[in-house]
Amino acid sequence: MIENAEILLSVLMGVPLLGIFFAAISKENSESAGRNVLSVGILTVVSNLVILALIGKNLINGSDSFQIMKKFEWLSTPKIEFLFAVDTFSLLLIAAVHIAVLLGLFGVLNNTYRQKTLVILALLFLEMMIGYLLAGDLFSFYIFFEAMLLPLFLLVGILGDVHRQDILYRFFLYNLLGASLLFMALCILFNHQHVTIQTIGTVVLSRNLQMIVWGAIFIAFLSRIPIWPFHYWISSVNVNISNPLVFIIANILPLTGVYGLIRFFPLTAPEIIAPYLLALQIISIITMVVIALIGFSHRDVQYKIFSYMTVFYILYLLGALLPTDKLLSNIGFSVFSWLIIVAAIEVIVSHIEKERQQLGLSERGILREAKTTSFVLSFFVLAAVGLPLSSMFLNNMFIFAGLLTYNLKTAMFILLQHLFYLKYSDNEIAEKNNVINDVSSPIIIVLGATILLIITSFINPLWYME
Amino acid sequence: MLTDYIALLPEFVLVLGILVMTLVKVFRHSNTPKTFYSLSRVFIFISAILTALFYNQNVGEYLRNNSYTTLFKILLYLFTFIICYLSAKRFVSKGLPSFSFYIMMLFNLLGYSIAISSWNLLPLCLGLGATFLGNIFLVKIEKPAEEHRHILYYLLLSTVVVLFMSLGAGLFYHYSQTLNYADLEQFLSLRSNLIWQHHLAFSCIVVSVLLMMGVAPLHFWFSNVVGKCILPVAAYLSVVPIFAYFSCLVNMCVNAFYPLLGWFNTVFIIFGILSIFIGAIGANSENNLRKIFAFSGLYYIGVTLLALFPINDNSLMSSFTYLLVYVVAICGVYTIFYGYRSKGKYLFNLDDIKGVATQRPFLSAALLVFMISLIGTPPLLGFLGKLSVINSLVIGHRYALLAVVLFSMLILAYAYLKIITVVYFEPRSNAFDIVDRGVYLCMFINIILMLIAIINPKYLMHDVELMLVAVF
Q: I want to staple B7 with a disulfide (CB 3.0 to 4.6 A). Which of B57, B161, B205, B370 is the partner?
């Protein structure tokens, strides 16, 4: 245990800012070909992973409450205090986001187009995600919830290959609307009883106010998750992104919605919106099945990954909405592996797609000579569909068990749509010379380390804690 | 008696400055554009120091100074100084005469200073009327003869406004035999039933001030003037006068017309809502950058009005915070406009700045920061303003107005997104000139101040709150 462990939280939030500073002043010329700025990005993320490991050493496993906290007064009238805190659940998510971004950075190792902008914005997004996942009070929660939109908007706009600007505008405005609703609700809550996130379940409001406040909070978080009618913005943005880092970051955003709901309503949704939960579950299931079907029939691999992610986000959402808080650790451990697996798949797939387009090849048998790439991709795909290779296996089983206990029909539908992912490869005849190069050695090393991490998380998901 | 004269020293210094500059213009033939900047800088600085020194000295029954008036005056001096500094770069680089601009800076400071301190309707009308009329000399700087129609239009408008204001003051004098704030308030409080002439007189004065502020539906002149005049004047009109109008409006509403205020609160709110909608929609319909920000300014003034009325210490604090945050950001935006040049020409159309981020990344990043701050997105300073206003509306249980403010912000955000898209996502269409170091300096200081203010606003806001409540 480290004394004054709360200082680690400040360091965790400070390192990306330092990284942004060094990335901004690093030289970007033809000689360095963007390597300087990329090294800064990688070093920043790795440093933070070390700090996260130190924080993990100071956490008591099994405790659901905040364990390391840092508080400071920001404003005296109205009296607003920021609280940053960490528990096992948030630590897992922060670690997963870091590893996903690290994999994304390795994925753009050979991509020199506006690398400085890419790294700066990625680190800025990471900073906002850390702040959001550490937020322990209403206002810091909102601040980072809204603030992460800007780096994401710029990343998608500059490097996301989105040619229609109206899609970008819609993306930003949808999210801004959600954030505005959250802000309004939080201001009402704050002025009502000066509640904190921990005491939010105890707040007493009039019926009308309950409807406004809880409804606004629910819509705000749901607006981040790609379920109908909020699915449009994220799908239209995601299908165009070819840059793996940008794709990974854009697909981390829905996590904020699920996390928000878990943090605000860990046990159950407020009574006033409970009648609407059934409608939400039906919409979620329909979205899940439709998206899974589209992913099944779509030829674009990028879209398949997106649809896979959407289905899992909805699974976690449904798990989070169950009237119990016993599944939260399972969701945390499952998301940890899942996010890393998806990031790894995206890095490999973007490499394959880039090579395929550069060499003008078809899809038939292009991996048969790239044995390492083929092996790594196969491992991650198998882990992604839920085979016993990662912590997803055990924890998803618990989530399904929870769903079966509370809502049998929902669980059956979710299990049904998983069948769609069993369609893995076509039996098409491979063409001669239709082969691509393996991924480069540094990426292989990183992916190898990721495989080890994933397997370790299967054997003992709590290995990094005392 | 002597203290009365001492309290007038800041104004005296400004008058002296005007005289000295006129003499230099007439008798010295080797003047450069920098000459008048240097002179105005000295007089503004001395006057600001004296204002801070004599922050609580009164001048008879006409002018009263306290921490409230000093706060606004110092802000006026500060922002005028920044505009003067940035404008000097433009006049020097183009080699154009700067006398009219700088002498008007001193003249306006004088007028606003008198109006802010006024404890009587006479100096208020004199100060605000003279400056609003005098702005005609700013608007016509470097304007060719064929554009004099617009200038005549402004002259006509400002004359009508001044007459309207004088009519209001005259009516009050006719019925109460006094123009002193305290006496007027006593007179209005003692009357059991106020007649329509009182309301008319009050309306004449308040509507004139609202027109000067450019509040909708009296906003029609502002975007036209700002869109067509030279950059230093546009920057000045967008940044500086709003403090003087806001301060005067609050001062006279609280200390002279409080008994009439209940009746007019609804009108203020209607004006506020109209400004919010027209500002948000108008900003989306423009391609001229200055007009976009003029309309967005209308939105912010509308929100300020909504937060201000009904007036109390909480609403005053929140509306002032919002206004200050807006002005800091808009000052930053205009600083960036000084840096957006191509072949010596200052650019003000959206199409002219396509892809500027690829050649001027720091400048564009700063523009982004200021615009995001204007949207009120955390963690930038704009969030502090948004928080104070939204919090004030929630405390007042005015949820419908809250919805109006937030919904209109989404419309306004669309206009800013258009600018961000043009700056960052579009391919570059112009070769941009090297940016003056002064622009970078101002930009840097502005961002540092924003950072300090947002990281730890409590000390700053605590002092500001103490200064503001002095008006009650």
A: B57
